[in-house]
Amino acid sequence: MSTEFIMPKLGLTMEEGTILEWLVEDGTEITQGMAVLRIETDKVESDVESPGAGRFHRVGNQGDTYPCGALIGYLLADGEEPPAAKVNAPATAASASSSSSSSSSSSAATVASSAPVASSVATLPRREGRLFASPNARRVAKELGIDIETVVGSGPEGRITSEDVEEAHKNPNARRATPAPAITFAPILSANGNVLATAAARQLAELLGVDLAQVPYDAADGRVTKEGVAAFVRAQLAGSRSPSAPATPATTSTSTSTSTSTTATTALAPASQTPTSIKKMSGMRGTIAKRMQSSLQDMAQLTLHMDADLDAIVEDRESRKSSSNASDSSNSLPGFTDYVIAAAARALKLHPIVNSQVTAEGIALLPEIHVSMAVALPEGLIVPVIKNTTSLDLASLASETKRLSGAAREGKLGLTELESGTFSVSTLGMFGVDGFTPVINPPNTAILGVGRLRDDVVVSKKGKVSTVKRMTLSLTWDHRVFDGAPAAEFCKSIVDLLADPSALNK
To answer: Does residue 495 share a domain with residue 390?
Structure first.
């Protein structure tokens, strides 16, 4: 009996995945655990392994985006044929186009019936309008100051890799003379006949009864977006677009963005001036925006600030630096944030209520401590996880934080390195910030902000003036889970641990 192979859900925030490359040919006999395809999510690229053995039959198309749980292939037994009804069926969730035929409102249907649709749509390349480039290629292009749309891709189906960008940097004559031409409104279809759209756009279109084929796509994203669907419906309700007027691409400069509220008709105010440019809130930036707003809406967040004296830490670090063997690459010198992470992990052990999350059953106290650290990237913030943090001594912790931050900046983090964090540490000290109000990373119940290391003047009881190395710690916690006194006690434990560096190796 055939087994369905679906688009996996590789993280709590993953809604959809794009098939970047099939790693096996159609009809290949595969074994359990064999890498079958490579996908791209809003965070990382990852190989997907087969959950079983059999003859693999592909249904999903390379370059297409599918919601989690969508059918993208089959595992077949010897001599078995794939189910005929599903072989060439759309591999996404219930198509908004089909549902809208029975539930679309009269106002939307009026405009939809007259919206122009190119007759040659089916011949369009399935990734047209959405630049097919790896996240690392985009990063390298930005670093080198190269317009990535001028780079010629050498990967599968013309996908642009970081090597292509570097080659374009070395040999400008190899670039395209001009960026790819702008595309028309004609809906972009995948090879299986579906309109390219985000999962959120499909859900909203189905809810409102809108035909996705009539909604302008986002020129920056190359797909129909949730904001595009909302703007399309608002335009119809307001009568701002006549039935005979041609539709135009829903670029971010002409469409009104919606808030993350579930009410699609609640719009944000337009720009008070003519903007010099618009930065699309999609991909990583969009995920951060949604998660942070959801965090502030769903939790009762408060922040306290507490100073920690770091004279002992500075002395310990100098001692490690002078005694370290420069030829020993395994001897990693801890940074000040490493000391804070180590202290926070051990404080979580002393205060289990902070290492928790809110569930439907109540407050779940988590047995394992996995501290996440925020790493700033040009596209936004990413939070890799230091697994089993309390099991690492300072040198091992420093090696791991350096590895994770390097992998984050190079776009090489795996999904397993971004999941299961139970507490977060975020630092702005390198920017000269003393204290700030960090926002909790769901489903955690607390986050610690780290300020700069500074010299404070202190006066002893006898009137002697001296200086001390200090750092401000900013703890934000969910007041639903614990109150101010336990929060202060937890932060004080971190301060006390920082006063005794030897305790951070236990």
So the answer is: yes
Confirm if 61 and 192 have CB atoms less than 8 A apart.
yes
Q: Nearest CA to 415 among 23, 41, 7, 20?
A: 41
192 and 72 housed in the same domain:
no
Structure tokens at 488: 């202060």
For residues 148 and 266, the model is more confident at 148
Query: pTM for the full model?
Result: 0.54
Q: Are residues 479 and 395 in the same domain?
A: yes
Domain final residue pick, 210, 244, 273: 273
Average model confidence (pLDDT) across the chain: 77
CA distances from 300 to 211, 236, 303, 364 (A): 39, 38, 10, 17
Question: Is 75 in a helix, a strand, or coil?
Answer: strand
Q: Give CA–CA dist 186/458, Å, rounded.
A: 70
Using one digit for the tens of pLDDT, what is the confidence trace for 324-349? 654 454 457 899 999 999 999 999 99
Q: Are residues 360 and 262 in the same domain?
A: no
Same domain, yes or no: 314 and 216:
no
Mean pLDDT to the nearest integer, 83-97: 43
